[in-house]
Amino acid sequence: MNTHDIAVIGGGNAALCAAITAAEAGAKVVILETAPKPYRGGNSRHTRNFRCMHSRAVGPLVEAYDEDEYFDDLMKVTGGKTDAHLARLAIRNSEECLHWMQDHGVRFQPSLSGTLSLARTNAFFMGGGKALVNAYYRTAERLGVDIVYEANVTHLDLEIDRIAGIDYTHGGQAHRISPKAVIVASGGFQADTDWLARAWGPAAENFLIRGTAHNRGVVLADLLDQGLQSVGDPTQCHAVAIDGRAPKYDGGIVTRLDCVPFSIVVNKNAERFYDEGEDVWPKRYAIWGRLVAAQPDQIAYAIIDSKSLELFMPSVFPPLKADTVGQLAAMMGLPADRLCKTVDAFNAACGDTSGFRSAELDGVGTTGLTPPKTNWARPLTDPPFYGYSLRTGVTFTYLGLKVDESARCRTDAGPVRNLWAAGEVMAGSILGQGYLAGFGMTIGTVFGRIAGREAAAYVN
Amino acid sequence: MSTDLIQEARRQAEICNACRYCEGFCSVFPSLQSRRAFADGDITQLANLCHNCRGCYYACQYTAPHEFDLNLPRALAEVRRESWERFAWPAPLARMFHTHGDRIALAAVAGFAVLFMAIRALGSAGGEGFYSALSHAAMVAIFLPAFLFPLLSLAIGVGRYWREVAGSLPHPRDFVAALGMAGRMKDLAAGHGDGCNFEDEDRFSHARRHAHHAVMYGFLLCFASTVSGTVMHYFLDMPAPYPIWSAPKLLGVPGGVLLTIGCIWMIVLKRRADPDLADVAAQGGELAFIALLGFVALSGLAVYALGNTAIMPSLLALHLGSVLAFFLLTPFTKMAHGVYRFAALVRDAQSKRTERPGSAKGA
User: Dihedral, CA atoms, B93, B95, B100, B106, nearest 10 degrees?
Assistant: First the structure.
């Protein structure tokens, strides 16, 4: 194991792009993936597209999406919390990524049904992110990259301005290797509940983790402890409202619940707490992650009636169903009298619903209700009634390693000569807050390739 | 109907419908995504649309050890086989053979025995060529019922299928669409055209598609050869044996070669594929059926090649015996999949033509 030029820590999209690029440049590469093979690929296995700049229709992408529009979209979601130089680097390089990905086994499909709004900006992987990950592992193996699953890296040995060695365990044995260069692509720390709890308090215990259980931030913490420069808000994570019955980890895409705009949402005391109809769901699902996190026991309940059941994507688990609001309350463990009161008050505040339009802001709102519901407010009157529980689902954390445009990491004393980072572990440089659909995969692909190229140039 | 198998497939389909990442792979997913709830007939239709290419399995983020434990290719394969057993007429025969390769082998042996006895008891009645071993009249007496019975049985079966999947009177365009899909085995090519995942985990390859082409077109050529012989015999007054430059031979020899190669290739591929992604219970039945079909082809070629030697009558008995077993077992073995799959493709084309597109999409 000491014959490798480059060790890549992590096994998702960024790690694979780095490993493939370095191997094609002639370097001998090993991937140290902490997950077992069925769970390889980190959060990439849950993704479905990447956001791609293009000047004309190309592959699955229609029309054009230029650098400035892309950058503006990023500025909107991050509120300006981005490193403009690195962001533009990612955006500009995204265009050629499409071809590179195809050349390395990734296949695309037209924008999925229900996601037509993304047909211009995001290229969808056929079969989703796990198919992409599979293709990259095949390509990497063909290029002679060695892959070690269940390799838990515990420590990178920083000697002033270079990594002198890597400690990891595998099969119950401790190992140490000393590759000439190291690429860290090991994701965020969201699966480490204790770490989350340090930022969020005990509420974090009730958060669900949408992606891999293996992003525990072990390498990130080790490097930060040794003085590597960081970026991103250490107390923040990207969180959305998901089905409360989702598994603790790896629930992925299917646990999304798109019912909120057509619901009333109450907390465990059967009280409403926010305007469910404030905006279209793609612009509000992330806000609701935080809203639910702020409620007692970090749980909420969305209630609709039969009028609205088919207005949103089917849920992975069927909703609870009852003929009366009181019965539904009993099924959901809510105080029935209070839920009935809340529903009655809401229904009384609804007005003319003839202008109801499910696909746009229709202005059908409540009057005299606190908090109001400003769109899609139709009284819950038509049985059966349906209920979903909502919990906070964490997507990723923002804290990461600071890198320069060559993806190299640094300490306060300057660059670390043989250490690069790519993917979620450095995405906080560009995504300071919020999220832009498909941008994580763009960052991973662009900076994975840069890291692979730079590391290979360093060792050759 | 096995409610357990249908229910398990429904559970999985509901998860797929909330994910939709596999939309581009094959016909199953657009069909699945066109509804929010799945009646039993919907599950049957999805099962018969599925070609077990396994692309969705290897792409799936929810396969075991994930607690959702998705294995859609297997769930649909089990529903599919169970549906063929249920639709078949008489159904008990289908239950005897789909999952019992040994019984298929026994049926072939019984076929051999019948033909050996027929040759011994009935003989040539003075015919030429193959008819010197068994007369034309005797062959017709044995094979006409053996040919018509499976046709009747399959017609009843596919009628039952059509009712369960709530099909209406199909339009000729639906047949054209289905022929286009089946003729190219498009559902084994995947949406990206790289083929399916079969013999080597998640690697895409056209091996299975091409092997299936060899079997299907080889079989169709052999069938055309038989039809041409029948036409020449009855309508053109040209009884066998036929020379090499004649329709029966020009169709039959390449057909037999293709079919033989295709069957061997298919068996090799199936033995390499992960059995857990298919209907494990039917694996023996499938392999035995393919072996029988391959034997039909190979023995046919042997009879032709060695037609002027002393072992011809024995080879003829083996060949015709296997043909007899193959014909009679057609509605009760994997061979039946051809008509059900085709019916499913016709039904799918019909749905696409008549149902409002995107009727079950999200907001």
Answer: -10
